[in-house]
C-alpha cells in the first residue's frame, strides 16, 4: 500500500505507453474531475461484439506533423462540461499512465484540445491518493529536451495512402487554407494548393482540361475544395465548372457558389423556401429613395452593397437624412445595393452556424467591437461558443440546402419575431469558429470529402462500423 504521495507541479511530462505516447505534457488541474487527452478523427466501431473507438493524437503542442493513431475499448460515453461552460458528450477510454516512476490506470475523455495550451489535462480522479500538487512548481519529475522528443517521435511525414485533394483559392497562407491543407495531410491525403489566377482551362467536349502555371496538367485530382473570394467569383466558378465537367468532386459546386454570392437572389431563394429575413428593399432609381426607406420601416436602417463581403460595404444610417445621403451616393456610383431593416434588439450580436452536408457541426455567437454595429471578427469583434435553438438549427440547415451548399457559414440574428437569416457564406472562415469551439472543423470538411468518394482510411480492421 502506497504511504507517501508524489509531489508534482502545475504541469508535468507523462507517458501513455499502451497508446504509443512516450511523452506528453499535461496541465495539472485539480478543479477538473476527469482527465482529458487531445484527440481527433474519433471513429467508433465494434470488434468482437465490443464497442471500440479509434482516434488520432498530436502528442506535442504546436506540432501537427507528429500523429499517433490509437485504438481502445470504450469505457463510457459521458457528458462533460468544457472550460467554456458548454456540456458535450465525449468518449471515455482507460489507459495506464506513467508519471515519474509510477504506473497506474486512468480514465481519459477524448476531446479536441487544439486550441488549448496543453495536449492533455490531468484531473483529480487520476491524482487521488497518489499525488500532491504545488502550483508554484513545474516539471518536478523532469523536463524533456528537444533531442529526447526527437528520439521518441522523430519527424515523419504522414504516409501517403489517400486521395489527392486540391484547395482552390487565392492566398495559401490564410488560416483557413492552411488548416484544410494540414487536416488533409494528417489523414494521409496528398494536398495541393491551386492559385485561382494561375489556372487556365481547355474547353473540349471529349477532353476538358485544367492546366496550371508552366503547363502542368491537373488530371489526377480526386476532389477540389473551392474557397473563392468574392472579387474573383466569375473566374473561380468557371474553373469550378471545368473541374465538374472532368468528373472531379467539388465542394462547393459552381452553381451553389454563384447563388450564394448574388445577395439579392439568395435572399429571394430564402423567402421562396420559407426562411425569414429582415425586411429588405431594392431599387435602382434615386427617385425612389424616400419610399425605399419607408418600405423597411424607416431609419435607422442598414445599407448593403451587393458586392460587399466580410462587413465591407455595409453602412448603418441612423437618421432618414443620413439614409438618403448614403443611398443616393451609392446610386450615383451605379452601385447595386440593398436597404435592410435594422434589428436593434440584436444588440450588435449574431450567430455564425457552420453546416457541413446538411448537419450543424458548430455554432458561435459573435459580438461587435465597442462602437461598431456589426459582429465582425475582422473588425475587432469577439466570439464565444453558444447553444442554438432547434429553430435556429433548422433554419441554418434549410438555408444551406436552399443554395445547394455542402459547406456553409450561415449568419443569423435573434429578433423579437424569432431568428432571421442575414446571409450564407460559401467560403466561411475557420479561425474564429475553431478557436471559439475547439473543434476540428477543417477535419470535418475533409471527412465529408472522404464519405462522398467512399474512401476509408485503414483502421486496424474493425469488423463492424457503428
Overview of the structural elements:
Strand 9 (87-99) and strand 10 form a beta hairpin. Mean pLDDT is 86; it is low at 460-466. This protein is an alpha+beta fold and 466 residues long. The chain has helices at residues 124-127, 146-153, 175-186, 233-245, 254-261, 263-272, 289-295, 320-332, 390-403, 431-437, 441-452, and strands at residues 6-8, 11-16, 21-28, 35-38, 40-47, 50-57, 68-73, 76-81, 87-99, 102-111, 120-122, 131-133, 164-169, 190-195, 199-202, 209-212, 216-217, 223-226, 249-251, 280-281, 301-305, 314-317, 337-341, 349-356, 359-367, 382-385, 407-415, 418-425, 464-465. The radius of gyration is 26 Å and the shape is globular. The longest helix has 14 residues, at 390-403. The protein has four domains: 7-153, Cathepsin D, subunit A, domain 1 (Beta Barrel); 164-259, Rossmann fold (3-Layer(aba) Sandwich); 279-342, Dna Ligase, domain 1, CATH 3.30.1490; 346-452, ATP-grasp fold, B domain (D-amino Acid Aminotransferase, Chain A, domain 1, 2-Layer Sandwich). Helix content is 23%, strand content 35%. Helix 3 packs across helix 11 (441-452) and helix 4 (233-245) runs antiparallel to helix 5. The chain contains eleven helices and 29 strands.
